[in-house]
Specification:
By secondary structure, the protein is of the alpha/beta class. 36% of the residues lie in helices and 13% in strands. The structure holds pyridoxal-5'-phosphate.
Length: 401
């Protein structure tokens, strides 16, 4: 049996089978140890070090966040969530009245409301179905699932109009698990002078994005990146960042952190790196926890994690063939084989089966999964094993308990 790239002993999951990092990833023990040490210093603030902690922790976080997505640390902005990153882009981008933002139908609301908030400024948010029979909103349960072989990206590109200033997508979709081709959408957007923004939270930590044609990639740290809720990062290209109005923070200007200078001297330029979009003093506690989660991940290597997840998905889908989810196993295997799956395997039932009862049965077996919009979600990561796949297969096929 092959060893998983992340040693399960790094975590404290005991006998629980946690296939729920699409909602919340577990923190490694090491992160909690580092946090405990840092929190003790809150009792003795003279022990807090300006270089290694006050400045060093966010710096370390930018470094690890850059590694986990294959970017440069100077392009990372530390943020509190995916939404905070997307909002910094939405509010800072030089939209004009009449502009339009284009997104796939059925985005997670974090990638809808920051754009819908611009309606008061005359900017329209327009959704595009990605396949025939896709539904969302109050009709979500009547949707067909994404079929293999559909031209998802083509539908977005065909929908670009002269008013489209920005296209935004989830790299991996929260409900059906589909992974979009960022190169294809991004290159076509660049050719048309349209900005391309990505909500990356459901793929980051298990998969490596291609950022070549992306302008901004926003990510909360609480899922595949193994951090706590309330911390995340935004990656932007220097050219795109330059177009955005800064948040206006005192630490986003040249020499802002140099308290030996007269800080009331406002004749300073805005920083050009990712700190330009940050928002004042950062949470050291949260930054440290996310940095440690990412450090563990980077130690294993995201490519090793994605290869491992892919192997486990193939194995699980093979074992579901001929069982209760056999139709879905065939559809998902075709998506997996064509590189269309992120870490989530989402078995579609629509209005069919009661997913509540299925999840209750999972709970009884110590398995923590989730359901959204008529899909049963099983999210694999680098610490899962073949034995876990075995347990999942037995649950999903309704055999022994
Ligand atoms: C695609 C996607 N984006 C964003 C989020 C979370 O957004 P935030 O980090 O702003 O809470 C989720 C789930 O919680 C999600 O599935």
């Amino acid at each position: 049996m092959t060893q998983p790239p992340l040693d399960p002993a790094l975590f404290d999951l005991q006998d629980r089978l946690w296939v729920l990092h699409c909602a919340k990833g577990p923190a490694p023990r090491e992160a909690v140890r580092a946090l405990t040490d840092l929190l003790a210093k809150e009792l003795r603030p003279w022990e807090l070090d300006m270089t290694t902690e006050w400045a060093g922790i966010p710096e370390g976080l930018r470094l690890e966040a850059a590694r986990v997505i294959g970017g440069r640390p100077e392009d990372i902005t530390v943020s509190t969530s995916t939404s905070a990153g997307l909002t910094a882009v939405a509010q800072g981008f030089p939209f004009r009245k009449g502009d339009e933002v284009l997104a796939p139908l059925g985005e997670f609301p974090s990638n809808a409301w920051p754009w819908k908030a611009l309606e008061t400024r005359g900017v329209q948010f327009r959704e595009v179905p990605l396949w025939e029979g896709q539904r969302s909103g109050t009709e979500a349960l009547d949707s067909l699932p994404p079929p293999a072989g559909a031209d998802f990206e083509g539908r977005i590109l065909d929908a670009i109009s002269p008013r489209t200033r920005l296209v935004t997508v989830s790299w991996v979709r929260f409900q059906d698990g589909l992974k979009l081709d960022l190169d294809r959408i991004g290159q076509a957007c660049r050719e048309r002078g349209v900005a391309f923004v990505v909500d990356g939270i459901q793929g980051a930590g298990t998969h490596l994005p291609s950022l070549q044609w992306v302008d901004a990639f926003a990510c909360g740290g609480q899922k595949g990146c193994l951090g706590p809720q309330g911390h995340g990062f935004l990656w932007t290209t220097p050219a795109f960042r330059q177009q955005l109005v800064p948040q206006g923070s005192w630490l986003s200007v040249e020499g802002g952190a140099d308290l030996a200078r007269t800080v009331t001297d406002f004749r300073r330029g805005w920083l050009s790196d990712g700190r330009r979009l940050e928002c004042g003093s950062l949470s050291l506690v949260g930054s440290l926890a996310l940095r440690e989660g990412l450090r563990v991940l980077n130690g294993a290597g995201v490519s090793a994690v994605s290869a491992h997840v892919d192997r486990l998905q193939a194995s699980l889908l093979e074992r579901l063939a001929g069982k209760s989810y056999s139709g879905e196993a065939v559809r998902l295997e075709a998506l997996r084989a064509s590189g269309r799956l992120g870490p989530l395997m989402c078995l579609h039932s629509g209005r069919g089966e009661s997913l509540g009862a299925t999840l209750q049965e999972a709970h009884r077996r110590g398995i923590f999964a989730s359901a959204r919009e008529g899909y049963l979600r099983v999210a694999l990561h680098g610490w899962h094993t073949e034995a876990d796949v075995d347990r999942l297969a037995r649950w999903l096929s309704g055999t022994d308990s």
